Amino acid sequence: MIGTDINTAINFLKQGELVAIPTETVYGLAANAFDENAVLKIYHVKNRPQFNPLIIHTNSIEKLKSWDLVLPEKMLLLAAKFSPGPLTFVIKKSNTIPDIVTAGTDAVAVRIPNHKLTLELLSKLDFPLAAPSANPSGFVSPTKASHVFEQLGEHIPYILDGGDCEVGVESTIISFLDETPTILRFGGLSLEAIELVIGKVNTIFSQQSTVDSRPLTVNQPIAPGMLSRHYATKHKLIFDFKETDFNQYHHDRIGMISYSKNYTSIPISNQMILSPERKLAEAARKLFSAMREIDEKDIDVIFAEKFPDLDLGRAINDRLKRASVESK
Ligand code: AMP
Ligand code: MG
What we know:
- By secondary structure, the protein is of the alpha/beta class.
- 28% of the residues lie in helices and 17% in strands.
- The chain has 2 domains: 211 residues, DHBP synthase, CATH 3.90.870; 88 residues, Threonylcarbamoyl-AMP synthase, C-terminal domain (Rossmann fold, 3-Layer(aba) Sandwich), CATH 3.40.50.
- It has 10 helices and 15 strands.
- The protein has an 11-stranded mixed beta sheet with strand order 1-8-2-3-7-4-6-5-9-10-11, sandwiched between helices. The protein has a 4-stranded parallel beta sheet with strand order 12-15-13-14.
- The longest helix is centred in the last third of the chain and has 16 residues.
- Adenosine monophosphate binds next to strand 6 and strand 10.
């Protein structure tokens, strides 16, 4: 069922049921994080590996403290500026947080999402919501309630419809487990914006941190060759191409995801031009919808441009690169 009634959502959550919730990044598949059976349902419905931890969502810093979490100074500086918002903090876990949420690791990921309906829902709950993206594990994340319904509708009692996601890519994840904060995933808040507030941070992008099939710890580098397919489209996706690569295909069987360019050798109906005015935020917002739309066309292959490697372009490139990894 899809609806906009917060009380219905609350009732299902209190009964240990799953509810899909809107956020500014992507739709989440939420359960009461303190109810282990409810959290297990998330893994089951998503077919998500149980060693991949979940982000917990709440509406205030005070609630995080009330769950015995110790919040580092630099986290508080960032939270003052960017929470609610598309930024997730990885900090030391407390005993209040069930192990199933953190996949047995001693760190927990926390976020205050910036969406009116969901903030109101969270403010009425005395427990956090564990919520990964509301898509089957490994596939494109949902940015509309209808995306959730199409992929998981039969398994979720209630989808809270909050309209289209305004940011459109997942949150940036920053870890405070080591002395220097480390970005574990590029996302809806730019590295540049973070460094303006807390100075230089590390990134572990050479280690490909957001692989869905592996646990994520700072001390466990993941070699690029182990990068698993994520954000998968049905059609083969080729990322960061040369136009001469088109010649291996019939040009009218090519789908395109580009920043602003119109490729005249490809039918215009097969081209997703994400931002003619070259605005990275607009491109990020449209990315996952465009991946779904192009994938429905009668084509043989999808080509995706490499976006400028700065600001939200980093998150876009990360998602497209993962989508381009061939399944084994
Ligand atoms: P999703 O909500 O589907 O975008 O996925 C959540 C992602 O958050 C996981 O795949 C991890 O990359 C990251 N994450 C969640 N919890 C932790 C944690 N305790 N330590 C490190 N990374 C985490
Ligand atoms: Mg996900």
